[in-house]
Write a structure and sequence with these properties.
alpha+beta, 6-stranded antiparallel beta sheet, 3-stranded antiparallel beta sheet, 9 strands, 28% helix
């Protein structure tokens, strides 16, 4: 599989995310958990392809401070998509338009900002230090409009 093929695999999901309102993160998360649960065949295929991308090196070709990362798509249905493999805190940042995160545990009982694997949604103008604890996670970040501000 290639990065381009993986991007096309993500397109239906990105289209669904584009229709959601991040200003109500609870409702957006519930919608994603219903329409894109980890048990859905298409979500499982995304996970398998992402794991393959990790192994082949095209998903997270960069590394900084023990965190591996890479840009999946600059504009996919109006969002940038990044992949991050982490087991430690990342850089503090703000989400001007919100953020939609699909989190896959790779080891341990990993949690992303206190959440188990699955979906995490941040509203517009939220700020956080992305933190994985108790293991390692692979996270696909969908940023509407590609908007992110590192602080």
């Amino acid at each position: 599989m290639s990065l381009e093929t993986f991007t096309e695999l993500l397109r239906p999901l990105a289209r669904d995310i584009a229709a959601l309102d991040a200003s109500d993160p609870t409702a957006a998360r519930a919608s994603l958990e219903k329409s894109w649960p980890l048990s859905r065949a298409e979500t499982a295929a995304i996970r398998a392809a992402a794991e393959q991308g990790l192994e082949e090196g095209w998903l997270t070709p960069r590394e900084n401070g023990g965190i591996r990362f890479g840009r999946v798509a600059k504009d996919l249905e109006g969002a940038t998509v990044d992949a991050v493999l982490m087991s430690t805190p990342g850089p503090r940042h703000r989400h001007p338009n919100g953020e939609f995160d699909l989190c896959f545990t790779r080891s341990g009982a990993a949690r992303f900002d206190g959440h188990p694997e699955g979906w995490v949604v941040y509203p517009p103008d939220s700020v956080h230090v992305p933190t994985v604890s108790d293991g390692e996670m692979l996270i696909l970040y969908f940023l509407p409009g590609g908007a992110i501000e590192f602080l």
